[in-house]
Amino acid sequence: MKMISAIEFRNEKESRKSQTNDLEFDKIVLSIIEEVRSKGDNALRAYTEQFDGVLLDDIIVSDEEIDEAYSLVSTAFLASLKKAEQRITVYHEEQKERSWFVQQEKGILLGQQVTPIERVGIYVPGGKASYPSTVLMNAIPAKIAGVSHLAMTTPPQSDGKVNPHVLVAARETGVDAVYKVGGAQAIAALAYGTESVRKVMKITGPGNAFVARAKKWVFGEVAIDMIAGPSEVCVLADDKADARFVAADLLAQAEHDERAAALCVTTSESFAEKLAAEVMRQLDELDRVEIASRSIEDFGRVIVAESKAEALEIVNKIAPEHLQIMVENPMELLPFIRNAGAIFLGEYSPEALGDYMAGPNHTLPTSGTAAFSSPLGVYDFMKRSSIIHYSEQAFREVADDIVLLAEAERLTGHANSIRIRKGVFE
């Protein structure tokens, strides 16, 4: 794990950013989208055979398959899943928005009506690992919002079935339909519909680079939550932080993906040296050591800042998906954090706690987008309609002003829609 200065990190980040090129991904993704649009289920079967090595009979997961999944998971897993579900539900219930109305003078009523999106599709990654927690984090806020039809799509295993832990999570959270399709082809199916897959109005959930680019290209046909990049964590640590804890948290992020970023910012060079050594010591203990090693080698960094102010500046420029503040008094630094997807305070609040059990959503903005976007929440599954009611008296008082403004924009149709009403009472 490399130790670098804040200046070196800035230069390295700019260099890496300039090399980003999505053109090759886009060529493949656009071809897949068009194939799914034109050939429907046949394209989904062909791509599933090509990419997953599975010949699909049925694209839709049956109730019998979900029943079978319950017999394949442990009672301990089910108990833990229900505990996590309850905590995530309690947190997200607080996010639900309400419609509101304001009665103003002279018969003016203004307001906002909040309604759920009717049909939503959630993407749950597969392949390298299974993610029942992703089902919880997407399905629970959707159901709290009132989504009436919630579909889920996820790649099948080599045996042609969906991971049982994922299926159990889907039933427990009220998912209405599960499809055995992954990758860009799954996003295209949700966006445009096929013989088996019902078209949705919004797609949420993380995925690999092909999934992310597919979401970008179908945006407009449907809504999306965000375009997620590789996962990332940044730990802000002082010299009193436990290097064992910090190293374990960095590796927890690194094992996600070869392109995951595990960063630590500190003002202590001695702590940085201790941490780098501890990361390498713990690395061999992981089951996914090859993935984590690649991540740490390519994207793992310990950044040594000259001052606390510089450390905070670096953190805010990174705008990390996950930020762990592991200093003596973490609450004191919280007011200085402007950009982060989720903020974990203290040595017993690791990012893994937020992934599974704390309650807040783990679907978070990545790649610096926390500077302008937010975690997934109930609000992402709801939409707002403005409500306007004017009485005749209230209309009369603003009619001439509207005509003047409309004519200034040379929109005579707008002006006439006001004049014709003025004519009724003139």
Arrangement of strands in the largest sheet = 1-11-10-9-12-13
What fold name stands as the CATH topology of the largest domain?
Rossmann fold
Estimate percent helicity: 40-55%
Query: Which blocks of ≥5 consecutive residues have pLDDT under 50?
Result: none
The overall pLDDT, averaged over residues, is 94
Structural class: alpha/beta
Task: Using the alpha-carbon principal axes, give the shape.
Answer: globular
Number of strands: 14
**What profile does the largest beta sheet have?**
6 strands, parallel
- The CATH architecture of the largest domain comes to 3-Layer(aba) Sandwich
Distance between the termini: 80 Å
Give me the CATH superfamily of the largest domain. Answer: Nitrogenase molybdenum iron protein domain
Helix count?
Answer: 17
Just give the CATH class of the largest domain.
Alpha Beta
Overall domain count? 3
**Cα-based radius of gyration, to the nearest Å:** 25 Å
Estimate the strand proportion. Answer: 15-25%
Write the layout of secondary structure elements.
Elements: E1 2-5, H1 6-18, H2 23-39, H3 41-52, H4 63-72, H5 75-93, E2 100-103, E3 109-116, E4 119-123, H6 132-145, E5 149-153, H7 164-172, E6 177-179, H8 183-192, E7 202-204, H9 209-218, E8 223-224, E9 232-237, H10 243-254, E10 261-266, H11 269-283, H12 289-299, E11 301-304, H13 308-318, E12 322-326, H14 330-333, E13 342-345, H15 351-356, E14 382-389, H16 392-408, H17 412-425
Parallel strand pairs: 1-11, 4-5, 4-7, 5-6, 7-8, 9-10, 9-12, 10-11, 12-13
Antiparallel strand pairs: 2-3, 3-14
Helix pairs in contact: 2-3, 2-8, 2-9, 4-7, 5-6, 5-7, 6-7, 8-9, 10-11, 10-12, 16-17
